[in-house]
């Protein structure tokens, strides 16, 4: 999320970390697979890849990717979420920061994959979406991947309506030098069908500075 008054902060007040963690703990205890995002990303990566979990929340995805052998950094603006992540995986790198200002975090542009799952993009502050995508794209190594998952309607969002359309998102990605590789309807890889309400998108960054993916 971003440090401005983002939609996530409006929903939670920045104090949802423990509640969020308990929710996924209950899902895991009831037999649900809570690692779909991590499995999806792992299938795209070479061993020991460098991954940035943007809007990492309590660290659920980044922790699982680290267990699978990848080198993961998590960034979030919600300190209550990061408190859980740091408690669960103190050896991992967790950064408190604004996704619209990742250039201020001292991160090297060497990530094989940048992930923005859990409706991170729709829950940004209005008007910052294009800037955030540009910042995340700039952190990719040449040919690296931006993977996003987001609801496209009220049924798939904690909002009364979607704040933007998929065409807007794709335009922001193009402006950031990203090219759409594949799009799915779920983290399980179900085919995307227009109107299905959710999109998991895999964009690839430029192959070289100033080049075309």
Annotation, overall tally of beta strands: 7
Name the structural class: alpha/beta
CATH class: Alpha Beta
CATH topology: Rossmann fold
Tags for this model:
7 helices; 213 residues; globular; methyltransferase; SAM-dependent_MTases_sf; seven-stranded mixed sheet; Class I SAM-dependent methyltransferase; Rossmann fold; S-adenosyl-L-methionine; Methyltransf_25
Question: In words, what does this structure look like?
Answer:
- By secondary structure, this protein is α/β, with parallel strands linked by helices.
- It has a single domain (7-204), classed as 3-Layer(aba) Sandwich (Rossmann fold), CATH 3.40.50.150.
- Helices cover 31% and strands 22% of the residues.
- The chain contains seven helices and seven strands.
- The chain has helices at 7-12, 17-29, 36-44, 60-67, 79-88, 129-138, 166-175, and strands spanning 50-54, 71-76, 93-96, 111-116, 140-151, 179-184, 198-204.
- Strands 3-2-1-4-5-7-6 form a seven-stranded mixed sheet, with helices on both faces.
- β4 (111-116), α6 and β5 (140-151) form a beta-alpha-beta unit.
- The protein is globular, with a radius of gyration of 16 Å.
- It starts with 6 loop residues before the first helix and ends in a 9-residue tail after the last strand.
- The mean pLDDT is 89.
């Amino acid at each position: 999320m971003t440090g401005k008054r983002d939609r996530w902060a409006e929903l939670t007040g920045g104090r949802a970390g423990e509640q969020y963690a308990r929710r996924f703990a209950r899902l895991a205890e009831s037999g649900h697979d809570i690692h779909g995002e991590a499995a999806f990303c792992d299938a795209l990566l070479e061993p020991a890849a460098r991954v940035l979990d943007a809007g990492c929340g309590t660290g659920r995805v980044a922790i699982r990717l680290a267990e699978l052998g990848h080198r993961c950094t998590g960034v979030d603006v919600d300190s209550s979420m990061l408190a859980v992540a740091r408690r669960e995986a103190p050896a991992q790198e967790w950064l408190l920061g604004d996704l619209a200002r990742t250039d201020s975090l001292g991160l090297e542009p060497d990530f094989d994959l940048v992930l923005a799952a859990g409706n991170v993009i729709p829950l940004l502050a209005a008007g910052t979406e294009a800037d955030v995508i540009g910042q995340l794209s700039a952190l990719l190594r040449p040919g690296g991947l931006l993977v996003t998952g987001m609801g496209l309607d009220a049924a798939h969002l904690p909002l009364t309506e979607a704040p933007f359309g998929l065409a807007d998102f794709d335009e922001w990605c193009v402006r950031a030098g990203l090219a759409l590789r594949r799009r799915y309807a779920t983290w399980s890889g179900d085919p995307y069908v227009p109107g299905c309400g959710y999109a998991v998108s895999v964009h690839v960054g430029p192959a070289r500075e100033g080049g075309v993916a």
